[in-house]
């Protein structure tokens, strides 16, 4: 039976204090130099806003359910992608108002019997994001100074012969609109 003895503790080398000092110096400089910066995905959003009130989108089209569907999609996007909390309280930190302007279908190609072969479903909405004092929170260099609303349009192509329906294509367009609206809630650099 062979017995092994534990190795004696090693004496500190001359480089250990130097490495310790360098590590401390780097950590101090990184926190001091970046004191005003935020990191992570939530750094793209305003820190002075915590809650967002999203009333049901007003619908100026003949399809009665578009406003509700868009409101649900916008609420879902805000909750998933932003640090904001959607609330039903009109006295929230901010209010995001959305209004459906148009919903149209354009025929791209037809069969010889004048049946639509390919269509574009196009929807457009206006969105306004204001804080409690009425100040515009969405920022864009292309928005005229006196305008409070952004206009978003989204289209989707469908082929009825392939089994695609207008309703599913409209839902895809609504989901894309919600993503674009919430993306514009990010702070600009």
From TrEMBL:
GO biological process terms, semicolon-separated: Gram-negative-bacterium-type cell outer membrane assembly
InterPro entries: LPS_assembly_LptE
Official protein name in the record: Lipopolysaccharide-assembly
Domain of life of the organism encoding this protein: Bacteria
GO cellular component: outer membrane
